[in-house]
Amino acid sequence: MSTSSSSTTAPVGGPSLPQKRELVTAIPGPRSLELLERKKQSVAAAIGITLPVFVEAAGGGVLRDVDGNTLIDFGSGIAVTGVGNSAPAVVEAVTAQVAQFTHTCFMINGYESYIEVAEKLNEITPGTHEKRTALFNSGAEAVENAIKIARYFTGKQAVVAFDHAYHGRTNLTMGLTAKSMPYKSGFGPFASEIYRAPMSYPFRDGGISGEDAAARAILQIEKQVGASNLAAIIIEPIQGEGGFIEPAPGFLPALAEWATANNVIFIADEVQTGFARTGDLFASNHENLVPDIMVTAKGIAGGLPLSAVTGRADVMDAAHVGGLGGTYGGNPIACAAALATIRTFEESGAIERAREIGTTFRGRLNGLRAGDPRIGDVRGRGAMIAMELVDPTTKEPDAALTSKIAAAAHAAGVVVLTCGTYGNVIRFLPPLSISDELIADGLDVVRDALAKA
């Protein structure tokens, strides 16, 4: 079996990989199948693999598996490798740091790179006010700490999250997350004092404006929780796992204004949307939103585990010394990677590239939508784009069709991810280092999968 697509050959981080799709075996190939069997015998069954190929090298816009197949990467490890896999600046920075020292625990012996990352995040996140930052390992860990900080500062306990939200897999963040399967089912009881409000979902809202959707949510919050009990509102400016739902204009600013007026901390969860992913450095910037606290992770460190909570100095400094921290939080290797990653975003035209990618994806997908009523909606910003698939008559979600299209794309060598509360959304999160030729070829594969489904 041999399937290939023509594209440029470009040196990338790690090995120099030809930037083209090429299949030399079925997907998955024999070596990947062997490793999959070993996984079954050694790894907990609850840890699944969306596309069971095992990668040996990656860079630019491609992944090469252990069977020699080269796949187009429309996933970026769920929006992590925005600068590209093994980006040269990241590799150089990490290599130098490993040679110096790998760990001290910042709470025991500090190091400058932690401070440099904090200084940089204080500088580039929205707002010109004085800020402070704390570093952690994962998005869920950062969300938990943002809630801790908000509760300590306000002296209140309740937290509001939104329909379709995803904030993590730990106990508290499962409570914040809306979708039961696979994230919550069977894992309770969950943390208390968590409430849910209706989201602005333009495709399914019947045309309600952002301001009216916010008024609806605020009314529910006031009646069911009460501002005097509410420590924080937490929301993704564009929801990720929930289906790449971008709220109607005005929704987020209205919520933030109400929060400020009622001594409620407004937390923007930019774990998936941050770092140039949406065509701005942060998605909050699209509506000039200035959160009290912002949570970041994923794209922050080019593939190394790092997350951050950045916020108003008075809020972040409220807790007692020793109240925040963790053994690995702000690990020196991850900090080195983050500084190189952020520098690459700033110097490489990544924001402009994300906008170009978004224009290309939206143009192609909207072209398909014009002739295919099963595509109910195309939405998103920058290199964070999705299409929602529906029954063409009823507009009800079509999860079965979504699964078929994703499976066909995988078999043809294109990594795509599904998401959404109803399991009917295909999302596209390519690395910003991907070429136009790879985008075109990958979208041709999606087009053909739609036609055959």
From TrEMBL:
GO terms for biological process: gamma-aminobutyric acid metabolic process. It catalyses: 4-aminobutanoate + 2-oxoglutarate = succinate semialdehyde + L-glutamate; (S)-3-amino-2-methylpropanoate + 2-oxoglutarate = 2-methyl-3-oxopropanoate + L-glutamate. One of its GO terms (molecular function) is 4-aminobutyrate:2-oxoglutarate transaminase activity. Its EC number is 2.6.1.19, 2.6.1.22. Its cofactor is pyridoxal 5'-phosphate. It is an enzyme of class 2 (transferase). Gene3D superfamilies: Aspartate Aminotransferase, domain 1, Type I PLP-dependent aspartate aminotransferase-like (Major domain). Residues 1-20 are annotated as: Disordered. Keywords: Aminotransferase, Pyridoxal phosphate, Transferase. Residues 1-10 have a biased composition (Polar residues). Pathway: Amino-acid degradation; 4-aminobutanoate degradation. The keyword Nucleotide-binding does not apply. Belongs to the class-III pyridoxal-phosphate-dependent aminotransferase family. This is (S)-3-amino-2-methylpropionate transaminase. It comes from Salinibacterium amurskyense.
